[in-house]
Amino acid sequence: MSQYVAAIDQGTTSTRCMIFDHDGAVVSVGQKEHQQIFPRAGWVEHDANEIWANTREVVGQALARANVGTSDVVAVGITNQRETTVVWDRTTGQPVYNAIVWQDTRTTAIVEQLGALGGGADRYKDKVGLPLATYFAGPKVRWILDNVDGARERADRGDLLMGTIDSWLIWNMTGGADGGLHLTDVSNASRTMLMDYRTLAWDAGIAEEMGIPTSMLPEIRSNSEEYGRGRKAGFLAGVPIAGSLGDQQAATFGQVCFTKGMAKNTYGTGNFMLLNTGEEAVPSQNGLLTTLCYQLGDGKPMYALEGSIAVTGSLVQWVRDSLGMISSAPEIEDVARSVEDNGGAYFVPAFSGLFAPHWRSDARGAIVGLTRYVNKGHLARAVLEATAYQTREVLDAMNADSGVDLTELRVDGGMVGNELLMQFQADLLDVPVIRPKIAETTALGAAYAAGLAVGFWSDLDELTAKWAEDKRWEPQMPADERERNYRNWQKAVTKSLDWVDEDVR
Ligand code: ADP
After folding, report:
1. Helix, strand or coil for residue 5?
2. Which of 316, 331, 390, 420 to mutate to test the pocket of ligand 1 (most atoms within 8 A of CB)?
3. 84 FRET partner, CA 20 to 30 A, in 49, 97, 401, 474?
């Protein structure tokens, strides 16, 4: 009888379930999009109940398409959009508010108030590895407790739980209000601003300063161990839940970046480059995050430096859905190929402020360099190039922080199907860009973590042997052209700054 590992990939725009066989090949996929809720400028929410319902549905789809029964699934791994935060009632199982999504900027004032207590954006950086920013989970919990009627009293009574999406799913899968396990893993916990990255424990002082009762916080576990078993009738009942990683850590794991010095860049809704720094947590001097890479069972934690970019693929989505300039994301490549270059136009997509390496919540989107000459094709180029330029900024920061220049970049995610972008990326970074055969690295990483925990795969070497190159793009652009383009981009960035003030939010 064949055996399989299931991976649930709960992403920003959709939920997927993938069934993997022992070779690490994808046997089947179930997928469903969920609603993006934009109640006001800068606010982004998801319905946590919809996400849980979609999770059940896509798992059912994937199992049915593979003709695989629950008893053939040896383990399930979970990976999730990170930082997106749910607060729910432990008795009723109901969220008290929509999930507040990682891109949401409503916590700007909370973040400023915390910084004003002393230390500014770096107030907690030594302990949690992160600058104070709207991106992270802790301030989102604080906002819910401050703004939802009765929430603070209920939290103080111990009735409310908080979690990122991993916790929400595991709690529901293991019984929900009927004894569900309230857990998270080190990678997700490292994005809350509440976990000390050295001790891997919650920092009670920071939680108190943010006004978050510690009774709300889940237990922190490793990325690969049996946490519990599915208890939902007809939905992976009895299957060990044995892997959990934030999506970017999962992609790093799926790209088998197991050793110090290996890096990957994922091109999805946003872009996220992670460099494995081994057992050493490297504090960043250049606007990167110090974060957990992975921890297997009671093994030593491995750390990473991360460059997070909020808006890359979602800019293409915006061009499709809000401008109607294209009808599908891949079509942007055709439009961009109708011209030779960007015609002098640069698009800084600071829709949620700018993340790495700038961390400027006062920035907003800008298109600059416009003349009467610029047409739709040039703008399509500017849109794609924005992803590559932002990645160059992050790569430069990574080289500076680590003291070693990266010699190649492993890439994955939805945008790596775009040949024009990948070539431009190699040109701009001046290193080869390499896409693996299995591009679904996020789900694969979650499957690997779960499969390792139950002995389906024996060790990291076995997984490393499965990685294979699909395609590589070599740099071709002359150095002077590369640097001229990049200088223009840096000028464009300055035009997006200092936009948000008291009157313009
Ligand atoms: P996520 O996991 O963050 O939801 P994916 O890795 O599935 O995202 O990537 C989807 C993103 O990639 C979307 O934002 C979409 O606009 C973008 N995208 C997909 N295909 C292309 C393409 N060929 N060219 C440019 N962008 C693309």
Report:
1. strand
2. 316
3. 401
